[in-house]
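User: My collaborator sent over this chain with a note saying "see what the structure looks like." That's all I know about it. Can you take a look?
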Amino acid sequence: MRALVLADTHLKADLSPLPPAVWEAVEAADVVLHAGDVVTAELLDALRRLRPVHAVLGNNDRALVGALPDRLALTLGGVRVAMVHDSGARAGRDRRMRRWFPEAQVVVFGHSHVPVDEVGVDGQRLFNPGSAVQRRRQPERTMGRLVLDRGILVEHEIIPLGAR
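Assistant: Without extra context I'll predict from the sequence alone. Here is the result:
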């Protein structure tokens, strides 16, 4: 199972700020995970026309309240994956994610626009793809990719998309 991981796209009706590499990655993926701050349904609808999408509510997703959950737990390729937009402060994040999602092998989150791919408590993978649209103080825009198979996280990577 190949998952494209996005967060913090902050797009309204105009989807053109999303780099072409993201659309190519959607085509190569089996599923899309979006860790919030989608802002409006247009992007989710466009992604859903191509692949199944799992998304959570971000703090800027006022138009999607009631349509997206705050947290989500699912199994992809036999791997238990949890999603949340805001994982809280960096200090203590690893323990907090283990407490919030004790069964998850991978926790996908967003909010900070800062890419994270690190090991948390008891080997739990903590994964923030950054933002494919708004790099903020990061050197470049990013997205993420996970490959999950037979209960194992086979691959995980943050993919740079350039500064624009």
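A starting point for your reply to your collaborator: The two ends are 30 Å apart (CA to CA).
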